[in-house]
Model the fold of this input.
Amino acid sequence: MAAISNLAGCSHGGNLGIFGERRSQFPSTSGLKTRISWSSKNQLAVGHLGKSDKNSGVRMALVDAKTARSGDFSKPSDILAFDLVQGALVKWSPAVVVDRSLPKPPTAVFLHGILGSRKNWVDLRCHGDSASIKKRGPHSVSSTALDVLKLVQQLRLIPRVIVGHSFGGKVALSMVDQAAKPFARPVRVWVLDATPGIVRPGGDGEDHPEELISVLSTLPKEVSSKQDVVDALLQKGFSKDVAQWVVTNLRPTKSPGSSPSTFSWVFDLKGIAEMYKSYEETNLWKIVEDVPRGVHVNFLKAERSLHRWALGDLQRIHAAEELAVEEAGGVEMHVLEDAGHWVHADNPDGLFRILSSSFF
Done:
């Protein structure tokens, strides 16, 4: 999910999920001011980056808000479906765009992983409500990051914090890679249980995303019961938690002539399979080993990670920590105890304690 939150006075609820719909709540700091949610299904015509913009327009997305087009949150985006969560102490206003003397809302963007979806975040391409917004291939880490950069520019927001879980972690790094430098203000990037390079799945008996995608591709596009899907996945050896989480991607079928009791998938599984392949192969070590000035990259390893963190990867990150200090950048390694790959569900309190330094 790519979630967008204006931070001050905002409670931190929801999920970051690649494989984790076991919902948990981060500790609340205060009540929510506003949530605005848009999906492609109630989409209105809005101004957007045209073909001629390509990367050139987006390269302003994480720097100062030099905007030429009007737009606000009263209209949905034609780029990605998203939820905006605004804290009680901060409220976005079009005046912020026009008057540079006004403080910019401190904004965080949250990015889900493969087969995740927006709850109080943003649906990435091929996922959830964004699946109905047609996207050109390739469906990759890079193109997914470009979508999010276009979205934050369209919304006139300047992220100070980017949090990505699993696939979303690489998307966060790719956003930094593609955005213009230097940044107008410091940006903190959190990569939750993902490495910058080759993905190494865990041992036998664990829930592998690639295997899950393969099994899902054999199931009907419409099913009469969510429990039937859960049972089918259990028979294939997937855990109950993962099976129950996957069926949150089913929605009641509303097509003419369909039975009211049928459900259909809301994702583009073919596109997701391409995205996962890109996740396995994309190499973003260059961002970690040559961190742009003003960027601080934080890696968080789950104690019981689904993926194998090779000793060489850990050593390389620690070496980058030392180099970044010398170059006025930042790289830091964290370990979340008592947590598997679904860090936000397994140990939400511990995760919040680690992340909190970025939000206060």
About this structure: Residues 7-36, 39-71 have pLDDT under 50 and may be disordered. The chain has two domains: 3-200+278-358, 209-266. The two ends are 23 Å apart (CA to CA).
